[in-house]
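The data are quoted verbatim here:
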Amino acid sequence: MRQKILIARAVFPEVIARLAQHFDVTSNQDDVLWTPSQLIEQLQGMQGVFTTGSERIDAALLAACPMLKICANMAVGYNNFDLDAMTAAGVLGTNAPDVLTETTADFGFALLMATARRVAESEHFLRAGLWTRWRYDMFTGSDIHGATLGILGMGRIGQGIARRGALGFGMKVIYHNRSRLDAATEAQCQATYVSKQDLLKTADHLVLVLPYSASSHHAIGAAELAQMKPTATLVNIARGGIVDDAALAVALRNKAIAAAGLDVFEGEPKVHPDLLTVPNVVLTPHIASATVPTRLAMANLAADNLIGYLLKGKPLTALNAAAPR
């Protein structure tokens, strides 16, 4: 008898077809955002679920879904998983690392450049019909080339951004991380390890690429923003909640820092209303990995984890060592 899986959000039809070769598949191609109770209802009788960041897997859900064996996230982040509860329940969690590294680093640099050069702000000005003449200081921003690039969180994506900055734009790269990189990786990235305080004080452009956890919640708040240069920019492509969005809006309005670029938000898809009222911020709707090849690779890796674990007991990117139910 074939095992059953749920695909909790809309996904590429070819990925559904792959999974349907091995499982009885129920898919949510209407892309309904289920409530927790609706998700529990949909998961009855399911051995596996293909998730995105919008499906919370916690102890209450696991207790109500006793047949569930694996939750495969189509994302590198997994703060929607309560891994301790999953491990206790014997449910495996997997994510989709590596396949989105370079695409996300590309976007991080694009957001950095748009922020530093005031691209969104000047486009809004033009579209509003306000451009009537040239002026020497019209939308003057800050240089990227030769500037100091600060990176908070130096995993694979952070390293990709460092390489782009150092090799492509001749930037001086400094970083802070929970643990220092080995000397060979530092040399490859042309990056220098500094304290978090020195990172904040020194960076002309600060990019956040650290994972979200209880310890990184509001890692950038009012106190940290006050330590940055008034000419500095801040870019967040990590996770919402790492930045105190309310404090950032105040800092932007008061010109405590020059500008910010945000692809992620606390409580997304809701955006703090104060961020919508300041002109010196570039806002994008969590699209750093949004190219067709990359999103397809993420979906296929989630599918590979479901196939590998449910059929062979061998997932590719396990997050926990759960004893099978």
